[in-house]
Amino acid sequence: MSGRTKLIVALVLLALLVAAAVLVPIPSPAELRDWATELGPATPWLFFLAYTVLTVAPIPRTVFNLAGGLLLGATAGIGIGILATTIASGLSFGLARLLGRDLVARHLHRRSVRLVNEHLSDGGVLAITSLRLIPVVPFAPMSYCCGVSSVRLTPYLLGTALGSLPGTIAVVVLGDALTGNTPPALLACYAAFAAVGAIGLVRTFKRRVPPVAEPEYVTSPTAG
């Protein structure tokens, strides 16, 4: 597959994912509860499948975590949420690497592209964990960015699981608060996760700053 073909396929796929996120109706909590009652024992498996597939598109994970807490309970909701999150992130990563890595590689000579790539690849688990802890960083787009960077799959998946765990626990545990208003406790959790993530990113970036060399002064010979 040529570079131009890959670019066209990547753009078409991205357009389809964005269209899915905008056009696919997200069921309300009441609808989800009714479906779960009708499906019975199949609910956890179907929920896991829907969570995994739909979050590859830029559809927020929050709705699935909230539904998981309501439909499956805290233990099952957290377990399925983290497993589905990790698999979905791996799928997004793989798609982006397959279709977009060559395009980014051709632009690594540019300083801005090279710096972002170096921070992600060299930061390892800490960088990915820190980014996943910040709620305002979208899940799927970050997965795509990591896929086209040089970050390795193992630290990426580990960092995703670790960074997604606190937020998943908080939202699943508060899964019964599906009234349309964000509870203050959830906002406080998000703020704490964002602060920890920002600290981790600062530490990661500081490690990449080379030490400033002391200037050497050359003494001119004294005229006799």
Structure characteristics:
single chain, 224 residues, 9 helices, mainly alpha
Outline:
With 224 residues, the protein is mainly alpha-helical. It is 73% helix and 0% strand.
What is the C-alpha radius of gyration, as a whole number of Å?
22 Å
Shape: globular
Strand content: under 5%
Q: Would you tell me the structural class of the helices and strands? A: mainly alpha
Provide the helix percentage: over 70%
| Tally of strands | 0
Low-confidence stretches are none
Q: Could you state the order of secondary-structure elements as H and E?
A: HHHHHHHHH
Specify the biggest β-sheet.
none
- Count the DSSP helices: 9
Mean pLDDT: 75
Distance between the termini: 74 Å
